[in-house]
Amino acid sequence: MESASLTQPKSAGIIVEDKGLKKNAISFVSNIVIGVASTAPAYSLAATLGYIALVGGLGVQSPAVILVCFFPMAAIAAAYYYMNRADPDCGTTFTWMTRAMGPWLGWQGGWAIVVADVLVMPSLASVAGVYTCSLVGINNPSNLAVTVIGIVWIVIMTVICYIGIEISARTQRLLLGMEFVTLVAFSVVALIKVYADHPAHSIEPTASWFNPFAVSSIGALNSGILLAVFIYWGWDSGVTVNEETEDSSTAPGRAAIVSTFVLVGIYLLVATAAQAYGGVASLAAHPNDVLAPLGNGVLGSPWNKILIIAVLSSASASTQTTILPTARTTLSMARMKAIPRQFGNIHPRFLSPSFSTIWMGVVSTLVYVLLSVTSPTNLIGDAFTSLALTIAFYYGFTGFACVIFYRRELLKSAKNFLYIGVLPMFGGLVLTWVLIKAVLVYSKPHAGFAKPFLGIGSPIAIALLMIVIGLVLMIVQRVTMPEYFRRKLEVVDPSVLADAPAGRTS
Amino acid sequence: MSSGIIVGYDGSDGGKAALRAAIELGRAYGEKVVIAFAYDLNPVAGELHDYHAALKELATKRLTEATTLAADADADADIEAVIVEQGPAAGLVALADERDARLIVVGNRGERWIKEVLLGSTPLKLLHLSDRPVLVVPWRPS
Which of B45, B78, B84 lies closest to A324 in CB terms? Predict the structure, then answer.
């Protein structure tokens, strides 16, 4: 048989053939699961409800704020849907903003994603710390204990992402299912107890809880919305799961839209139940740790442990879906030559974006330690507040990027105009308005939980610091590697909309 | 009638040992040797495209290196290099099924040993998954 291969020259038999053997593409349901799980409902509620309840003048209207926030987020989901259709092959906000609005704004969009992910880590880690303590029965852990557990948490999660052990879509489905069952059980039991036993401080829900017009001041509504933006943050992960999905150009966007509906449902249910059971004061009393104390009362031992485990598993999913996309965003930026190329390194053994992952872990740990040492709960709360500014910025600008990118298609049909023009524009404008109002509110010296910094409120001080760092880094990058900054603006290829009618989003 | 030998290659010493064994077998039995580099893309956490492209580059580099090694071992070897986008064990089995291969060859120790300790090794998984003969080539650091 040697003769058969004798005729072949040394390299003629070598074809590096790309075999996409992955037949089991992600289903529509899995896509929703990924979107919802990336948002980490249990953790988002545990981290956010208390801070929303703390907003002065909001009173019992927390559910209304969550409901109001849903509309701009659903509108931005439309922007993600269409940008994903036009450019399903690439990263998200960073690439889209670069194409539609130019390299300078695009760079800031990418930076905003990184900043948001870094600023959420302290909150994530401290929630993990507090709930780990609750799990073993320690109810008022010291700041030191929480910080140490939090750091261990970040380190373990970074190592997991570095080694490349990732939660599979199937595991994600199972975990999310358990999380939902737990949250629904908690809510139902809480509501039953409210109506049947009338526990101390409990209040029966009324329709006005969901009425945004019942909020006493527009400033309170704003501050509330800004916090509530956070609980919807993460569903974009579902949209960016591109090529793996059956019908890759339409299904992911549709999944993002469905996942915002799923989220609003579970959030309203849990927020209502938690507030009905313990009253506003109980939510505001432990802003870092809302569900654990309530779980004690509602479910009792040992069932309350299930709620704690749900929050912890949700936080672990959330940590992974924070580190991984950040590493992938910086990898995207490095490959576009927007940041140093080391960020594009792939680990030869673990096949993970190693350099980006390590950086994310190290920077997160440093930020966490810094905030925790200087002012334990206050600065972490303020970082959390300023995080929402960043999210509002990059979601809002994704909305604008969509309108700009599609500008030549908008007037071609009424549906185009509504779904690609009006909705993303509406989402973008609302988020920008919230952002501006929030800057005005938070820049007042005593707007933050921590002491004012140079006369301005600490959430804005943190945001400003991040903007300044971003600008400096961008200018350094412009000087050292100017190539990326010479990119030209692009518009959508009209054929993107040709194969399927616009507007069939839901 | 089945034909061809699939060999999993990841650039590790174990992978190189497997490649050498596969080339020897290919020569002895007159079989084509298909060198495969497999990786999994996890959809969780989005932003896949550029990561995917980076992985593909790495895979191409590894396979180019493998084909050179193979050609050095046997200049007349009939070889083909394939990137498989699936976890190593399931990916090699799928490729073997698609090609109706006679044998799958892997090293006993890959590069990702920490992961293997935690999640089980590729050879072990292959032995469970494959309907075809699997050859595990031992390699020990000397």
Answer: B45
Tens place of pLDDT per residue across chain B (142 aa): 678 999 999 888 889 999 999 999 999 999 999 999 988 877 666 667 788 888 888 999 999 999 999 988 888 888 999 998 888 888 899 999 999 999 999 988 765 566 665 666 888 889 999 999 999 998 877 6
pLDDT tens, position by position, A129-160: 888 888 888 877 888 888 999 999 899 889 88
Which residues on A lie below 8 Å from B60 (Cβ)? 16
The 10 Å Cβ neighbour count of residue A453 is: 17
- The rounded radius of gyration (Å) of the Cα atoms in chain B is 15
- B56 lies in a domain? yes
**Nearest CA distance, A485 vs chain B (angstrom):** 19
Nearest CB to B111 within list A10, A19, A349: A349
Domain enclosing residue B131, as ranges: 5-96+108-137
Residue B45 belongs to some domain of the structure: yes
A39 vs A112: CA distance, rounded Å = 17
The letter for the amino acid at A21 is L
Residue A359 has a pLDDT of 93
Place of tokens 């349901």: A29
Q: Which residue in A37, A331, A298 sits closest to A186, CA to CA?
A: A298
The sign of the dihedral angle between the CA atoms of A251, A253, A256, A257 is: negative
Give φ, ψ of B103 to 5 degrees.
-155, 145
Taking an 8 Å cut-off on Cβ atoms, the answer to whether A1 and B30 are in contact is yes
**Collapsed DSSP state (helix, strand, coil) of residue A60:** coil
> Residue A257: exposed, middle, or buried by beta-carbon count in 10 A (0-12, 13-18, 19+)?
buried
Tell whether A150 lies on the interface with B, counting CB pairs under 8 A. Answer: no
Structural domain includes residue B53: yes
Q: In the CATH hierarchy, which fold is given to the domain comprising A25-492?
A: Amino acid/polyamine transporter I (1.20.1740)
Q: What's the rounded mean pLDDT across residues A23-45?
A: 76
> What is the domain count for chain B?
1
Asked if the C-beta of A72 comes within 8 angstroms of chain B's C-beta atoms, the answer is no
Q: CA torsion sign, A116 to A119 to A121 to A126?
A: negative
Mutate which of A2, A7, A10 to disrupt the B interface (most B C-beta within 10 Å)? Answer: A10
The three-state secondary structure class of B33 is strand
CATH assignment of the domain containing B56: 3.40.50.620
pTM: 0.82
Is A21's CB within 8 Å of B77's CB? Answer: no
**d(Cα A327, Cα A389) in Å, to the nearest integer?**
21
| Number of Cα atoms under 13 Å in the Cβ half of residue A195 | 8
Residue A234 near residue A38 (C-beta atoms within 8 A): yes
Q: What interface predicted TM-score (ipTM) does this complex get? A: 0.82
Rounded CA separation A248/A319 (Å) = 26
Note whether A324 contacts B44, CB cutoff 8 Å: yes
Is the four-CA dihedral A329, A333, A335, A336 of positive or negative sign? positive
Residue B24 lies inside a defined structural domain of this protein? yes
